[in-house]
Specification:
Number of helices of chain A: 6
Number of helices of chain B: 18
Oligomer: heterodimer
Strand order of the largest sheet of chain B: 8-10-6-18-15-16-17
Radius of gyration of chain A: 26 Å
Helix content of chain A: 25-40%
Largest sheet of chain A: 4 strands, mixed
Order of helices and strands of chain A: EEEHEHEEEHEEEHEEEHH
Largest interface: A-B, 146 and 164 residues
CATH topology of one domain in chain B: Ubiquitin-like (UB roll)
């Protein structure tokens, strides 16, 4: 048969947030008129879905709906520092700090309502835009509660900062505490290798990743799917090439990227081992999602046709040459 | 060529304008009509983000001169939600979570709209084929296919319209729920403005002159001819930098524009701000730079040889960063091992290929604050560096992060924002720079290519006894994130396994290649590729299942990492179990079952040859 199937697997681990240095982030929160909320923090979407995650966290903590949360722009002159958009740190650093700032804003509003209703603040609940006291008839809209706050001279605001307990590495033996949260992952890939052309099709990937706690499972899947396809590009086709310092892959006609026709079915399994340190238990997924993919594919190619590709990418030419070399070896061994 | 009296029906309205016959339709709709929903991703018809309908047919507007579409009916992404209400397909993209950075999405929505117009019953495989001309770098396409299938089923009445609605959580618990992305409506409709879509009154256009040499001394730069051109408002070189000229994520070794010498092809040498982009390009071409080529280094091994040319004076050995990790006694560990396996691994340089090429604007505000708007992934650090470069207090520097059309680490470097700030200061006017795809590929960071030698010693029962791991990585001409990438590579490279004797060395090296920098998975990808492949080789030699060898060696709760950190909770066992179970893994020894025909169960897509997916739709149509 010209086409052979195989399966391979690989595992990974990854550190969350900035490496071997103290990471930190801050946020401001306000429960606003009409029962909406403002969150201001130095963060902007780079596509991962952080704005939605932050709106969910703020809504959850303050008792609003996510669509009632307005997130301010990332602007060094208008927002507190939340540092960079990278290092698989946004949900962890900024998600946690938004939770803390939201809790503080909520506590101010709850205190006003507790005094007004003459109840213990711990009995007050805020949910989906309403404020009520357990086991009483007191229930009003969040907008009305904000009005009460303002009539009493209180603007329900909060601010928070979140930092990591981390250190640099020793220059001689590398010892240190580079992160306070780690995640782990494992992927299985199934491939079909065409032994006539050397072409590898990745048909399916099963990806199990610990993310701490998934704020938005669909967003987590999106990160896993996108990461796997980027890794598939590096595994099989992408190659930035230079000739004496000049690129010979200057545009997308020469630099080949995965398209809709190249992608496997991706089956994500979200595992939740909550972070014991941060207030939410969240960790992250952006970068670890693509770490096990390449070795899983290479191990699957080996399983399918018995050739070990150790130099990326596994282009059809390279796979075919390896298959032919193996066949020659077998033929010689048989003689 | 004389100007063309151009008229067309755009989004249902007749428009008439004077245009150059060779002007691209994409520029006409974006620049002349300010319909910025459709984007430029590659300018070569490869990525599809500029896709529009011309007389109802899906076309790539970057390839069409306006003269070709005289009198035609043109519909852009803005035509789909003209009344403000999103189309079924746009709502389905929102619901399915099909947009991430959003930059490819207007083109993707157009292509998907075309697909369902051509065949309202297209199955998933046909949908893939019909979206084959549109690149998405974020999503992995899966949620896009989901969205098109959802829209198809709603349109055909197979699913109720309520399937497109958002969710309300019970008792206000929104954590763990699939809340639809709050930024999606702006992305699926093309309303979101990325930096390259933004305009400011009186704005100038910037063009950058780049080095044609990999390594050369700059003998002189003469900007007088460029400066004399009418409409050229500012020309800058390194001589215009008032403060400490240097940026980089770890070491500030890169000047805003080349100073004294160039170190890679594509490095910025000078920049021009002019009334229009064509003039800016012409003026940049009029700058005369005299170079004296220097011997150049094109691979990391050569750069490490004694007597190699020196690229940065501060690093006479061309080493950007070496990170060592040491545990136990590795030679003793190998001596104790029953089996020692050595192998070499190579990984290549990779382009981030975010669909949004770099772009930015800068201006000086009424209080004398220098403001830079760009899709930077790290405005906090950028403002610290820029304040030093332009010799102003931090409060006089303001960075605004515009929506990022894909980053993946590639937009962490302050590669052009310094030039924008200097030109805004010099001209007193807002300035804008938009990279071409070619400029983006040639001048910005790549994933570090790597060469690894890995030696692992095992006991007969599969336990790892010793690991010696050495990776040499080409960091290219400037430091950027090399130090951090080497650090992460070293800490994580040997994997989440108990290793009593470990010697890990990751070495980043300067060469005259395009700089390497931050890229999603940051050194951990290169090193764990080596380790995880190596474990598979070991399985074959030791007669073990690949899950088994990892369980034998994995760290457990309370483990000590290679950097001697105690971990409270280690979830590797749980993810191994989950992947093994979900995939229906057949236990067996790696490498002893190839050619088997027992695969092809659930969780896979069909294997197909290009074009074969269309066969499905003829059957489908016949069935309907």
């Amino acid at each position: 048969m010209a086409r052979k199937r195989g399966r391979g697997m690989a595992a990974c681990w990854y550190g969350i947030a900035r490496t071997a240095t103290v990471d930190r982030a801050a946020a401001w929160a306000e429960i606003d008129d009409g029962g909406s909320a403002k969150i201001v923090t130095g963060v902007t979407e780079i596509g991962e879905g952080i704005l939605t995650v932050l709106a969910q966290i703020a809504a959850h903590e303050m008792g609003l709906k996510p669509e009632d949360v307005v997130i301010g722009d990332n602007d060094t002159a208008r927002a507190p520092e939340a540092a960079h958009a990278g290092a698989t740190r946004q949900t962890y650093m900024i998600g946690n700090v938004v939770a803390l700032a939201s809790r503080e804003a909520r506590a101010k509003l709850v205190q006003v309502m507790a005094t007004m209703w003459d109840v213990d603040p711990v009995t007050i609940r805020t949910e989906n835009g309403f404020v009520f006291a357990e086991n009483t008839n007191h229930k009003i809209s969040m907008g009305k509660a904000v009005e009460h706050c303002k009539q009493r001279g209180v603007v329900p605001v909060g601010s928070a900062t979140f930092g990591t307990d981390t250190t640099g590495l020793d220059g001689a033996d590398g010892s240190g505490r580079p992160w306070q949260a780690y995640v782990f992952g494992c992927q299985v890939a199934e491939v079909e290798v065409d032994t006539v052309t050397g072409e590898v099709q990745v048909l399916g990937v099963w990806a199990a990743h610990d993310v701490g706690r998934a704020v938005n499972p669909k967003g987590v899947e999106g990160q896993i799917e996108g990461g796997i396809v980027q890794a598939l590009g590096q595994a099989l086709m992408e190659d930035y090439q230079l000739q004496d310092g000049h690129t010979t892959t200057p545009g997308f006609a020469k630099y080949i990227l995965p398209t809709s026709l190249d992608v496997p079915q991706i089956n994500s399994i979200i595992v939740e081992d909550p972070d014991p340190i941060g207030p939410l238990g969240v960790k992250g997924i952006g970068e670890p999602a693509m770490v096990p993919t390449i070795p899983a594919i290479m191990n699957a190619i080996y399983d399918a046709v018995g050739v070990r590709i150790t130099s990326l990418p596994a282009t059809p030419e390279k796979v075919l040459m390896a298959i032919r070399a193996k066949d020659r070896e077998h033929a010689q061994a048989a003689e | 060529m004389s100007d063309l009296a151009f008229s067309a029906i755009v989004n249902g309205r007749k428009i008439s304008r004077t245009a150059k016959p060779s002007q691209r339709l994409l520029d006409f709709i974006r620049d002349d009509l300010n319909l910025t929903g459709n984007k430029e991703g590659c300018g070569a018809g490869e990525c599809g983000t500029c896709s529009v309908f011309v007389d109802g047919v899906l076309m790539k507007s970057c390839l069409l001169p306006v003269a070709k579409v005289q009198g035609a009916r043109i519909d852009t992404i803005e035509s789909l939600a003209k009344t403000g209400e999103l189309s079924v397909l746009q709502k389905a993209f929102h619901k399915a979570g099909a947009s991430q950075c959003g930059y490819c999405i207007p083109g993707m929505v157009m292509a998907a709209t075309a697909a369902l117009r051509i065949n309202p019953f297209a199955d998933r495989e046909e949908i893939k084929e019909r979206l084959g001309g549109n690149i998405c770098r974020c999503t992995g396409y899966q949620k896009i296919f989901d969205a098109v299938e959802l829209a198809r089923d709603v349109q055909n009445g197979h699913l109720p319209v309520t399937m497109l609605d958002g969710i309300d959580a019970e008792q206000g618990d929104y954590i763990g729920k699939n809340v639809s992305r709050i930024d999606a409506p702006s992305k699926v409709s093309g309303r979101l403005k990325y930096a390259g879509d933004m305009l400011m009154p009186d704005m100038l256009h910037v063009h950058v002159l780049r080095s044609p040499h990999a390594h050369a001394k700059i003998l002189s730069i003469d900007t007088s001819a460029a400066e004399a051109m009418e409409g050229v408002e500012g020309v800058i070189t390194c001589a215009d930098v008032p403060g400490e000229d240097g940026f980089g994520v770890f070491v500030h070794d890169q000047p805003v524009m080349a100073r004294d010498k160039v170190r890679y092809v594509g490095e910025a040498v000078a920049a021009v701000a002019a009334e229009d982009p064509v003039l800016a390009r012409q003026a940049a071409a009029a700058i005369k730079v005299v170079y004296e080529p220097l011997p150049a280094l094109f691979n990391a091994e050569d750069a490490l040889k004694p007597g190699a040319p020196v690229i940065h004076d501060y690093a006479p050995d061309n080493v950007t960063k070496h990170i060592p990790i040491r545990v136990g006694d590795v030679e003793k560990g190998f001596a104790e091992s029953d089996l020692v396996i050595e192998e070499h691994y190579d990984t290549q340089a990779i382009e981030h290929a975010y669909l949004e090429p770099e772009a930015g604007l800068a201006y000086v505000d009424h209080d004398g604050v220098v403001v830079v708007i760009s899709p930077s992934q790290n405005i906090t650090h950028h403002r610290h560096m820029l304040a030093k470069i332009i010799a102003k207090p931090i409060a006089k520097v303001r960075f605004i992060m515009s929506p990022v059309g894909g980053g993946f680490g590639g937009k962490e470097d302050m590669i052009y924002q310094g030039m924008l700030a200097l030109l805004a200061m010099k001209t007193g006017r807002p300035v804008r720079l938009v990279f071409t795809r070619e400029e983006s590929i040639a001048s910005t960071a790549k994933r570090h290519p790597s060469k690894t030698t890995l030696r692992m010693g095992f006991m007969r029962d599969g336990r790892i006894r010793a690991v010696a791991f050495k990776m040499i990585s080409d960091g290219g001409a400037y430091g950027l994130s090399t130090e951090g990438v080497m650090r992460k590579a070293a800490i994580l490279g040997a994997g989440p396994y108990v290793i009593p004797n470990l010697q890990m060395d990751t070495i980043g090296v300067y060469t005259n290649n395009t700089p390497s920098g931050a890229f999603r998975s940051f050194g951990a990808l290169q090193t764990q590729f080596a380790t995880e492949t190596h474990l598979d080789i070991a399985c074959e030699r030791l007669g073990l299942d690949p899950f088994e060898i990892r369980r034998i060696n994995m760290m457990r709760d309370g483990a000590t990492t290679h950097t001697k950190q105690k971990l409270k909770s280690v979830s590797i066992g749980r993810v191994l179990d989950a992947a093994e179970k979900a995939s229906g893994w057949e236990k067996g020894v790696s490498g002893q079952r190839y050619g088997r025909g027992d695969l092809g169960g659930e969780g896979l897509r069909p294997a197909v040859a290009l074009g074969a997916r269309f066969a499905a739709d003829t059957k489908q149509e016949a069935a309907e």
